[in-house]
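[Automated response] Your request has been received and processed.

Submitted sequence:
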Amino acid sequence: MNIYPCVYYDDGSVPDFLNIPEGSMVRFSRTFIEIIQKDSPRKTFGFSVAMQGVRCYDLDEAVISLGGNNQSSMDCMLRIAHYDALKGRFYNPRWLLVEFKLNSQKSQQDKADLLKKVSQTETGLKNECIDPSRNFIYNDDVYPGKKKLFESWKRGSNGQLYKNWNCFSPTTFEGYLLFKENLPYKPINSEAEILAPFLTCETSEKFDSQLNYWRQRAEEYKIKGNVEEYKWILRSLKEIFNDWIQDVPDPSEKEYMIEEWSFLDKFE
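Generated structure:
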């Protein structure tokens, strides 16, 4: 795996947000933490120094400059691209839309408000190259409940409206976006460490138990925001499983195991 979603360091094409004049990228350029601290002075919410310093386009300030209401748009957008760590180059640069809900309370039901912000921001940026995701960052306390709420919206009758909505905590957002300086990713758990316990598995039950153990380990990394370690472990499990399943003699057992662990197929 050599392709990663990554913060992009170019100056960016000047966004034509609501026909704001050319040159607005400089005028409305802010760091990630400057935008956060407009509503939360002196707070960092655990964001890394690198993330705090990422340059963004302040959509709120852009709307205010036109005499509009800064509650009608998402907070900011930042430049991202896919990064090919093998070739050392970026491709598919685009804007990532972000709304900070870091002061949100557990009891707040903000679906209508978020829909309005998304709709009006999309209208204003209809000519721009925008990533399809809509990203909402909550504080650590409310994040678990909000994530479940987002998932319920996606399963509802209007689920198509929310299919590209992402709910993040500060930690999980940093696991979602990477910096090219940290690439290619260096795994915490080596391939040999993951493989070792499988070599002594004498039965399918023991093999299945080890798969579940490492799957749980992977999920723990994902929850903590280390999505790359999560992907690395599951890609490793896929290779181990594919080698092992070929030697299972019982056709029915083989079929059962392939079906049970079919989700590994999506990890390339």
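Summary generated for your ticket: The beta strands are 3-7, 29-31, 55-58, 76-84, 89-101, 130-138, 165-168. The first strand starts at residue 3 and ends at 7.
If you did not submit this request, please reply to this message.
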